[in-house]
Amino acid sequence: MQPRDLSDHVAYEAGRGIEEVARELDRDPSEFVKLASNENPHGPSPAAAVAIRETASNVSSYPKAAHADLTAAIAEQWDVDDEQVWLANGGDGAIDYLSRAVLEPGDDVLVPAPGFAYYGMSARFHHGDVREYELSKADDFAQDAATVLESYDGDRMVYLTSPHNPTGSTIPLEDVAEIAERTDDETLVVVDEAYGEFADRDSALALIEGRNGFEARDDVAVLRTFSKAYGLAGIRLGYAVVPEEWGDAYARVNTPFAASELACRAGLAAIDDDEHVERTVGTARESRAYMREHLEAPVWESEGNFVLVDVGDAERVAEEAQRRGVIVRDCTSFGLPECIRITCGTEEETERAVETVNAVLAEVDSGAESESDPDSQEVTDA
After folding, report:
1. Domain coordinates in residue numbering, the chain
2. Which of 40, 192, 257, 366 is the most buried (most CB within 10 A)?
């Protein structure tokens, strides 16, 4: 007995954790700072941490009430009906629910390259096929309708990421609306706003609800998560907001109790913790600006809680920075072997990351110059 043919599937490659790296290098974990996975440098919402502790004694019960309460709270936040909020085990869980609701075997899904690997993974899990549209490094990874529509060929789902991971670029709502208008009636445009709190942009929910001068649409869905700005990555809590017409599909595609009791109670507390979110967003903006100003390598403008840096040899720079105690993301798995991604940390973490990466780059450049200098090479007679 063997599983079905998974040769077209790829494994998700997550950023490395401090404990993992410390064990590998036989070092004390306290020596390291992790800026590889776009986690919140201030930790979880304090209100959520309290809620988790208070809820611990209730985890023997299924989270029916908590699930309904959090759904209602999110719906109120966005001014949509409860049925339009699809809670999930992280944003990736919401992606799976949309795949279940939309895809028939052999349907095509159009995804950005570079981009979040799970878009394609979920499509393949649900027997779909994956095609890509390119976000060009030469164009600073700009996102617009023309770029997407040039590659579009009747695909059943089209993924947009705003802010985009790993580049930090965003796509204007006017372009999202154009994509939705010019694609087929049976094409779902999914706008992943996992980093939406960090961007000075309106949510694509305006297209679902017909706000801000846009007509209401039934072919756009929006993804959100509690992992980033709220600092709840470890409890896995995300959601999709779908058109009103889709409401009754959720019960047919979701897993029983799609989010845990702890996750729902933490989310209920975090969603009202505006102070924590504001602090987190402010830190990200300051960190982005500092890295763009002080890193001695090209840094793209970003509206996420990270920056993308062109270091020439990502694997070499990331490994050496890690050896010096700063864990950053080698973006080779994104198809960018010359780039690293650095999460926005606290002021101290950001300064340490900049100092470390600059020192590594200086040594790499110095080594390259030595190798190319004939006077530095040992010469022997033949």
Report:
1. 18-38+274-368, 46-270
2. 192
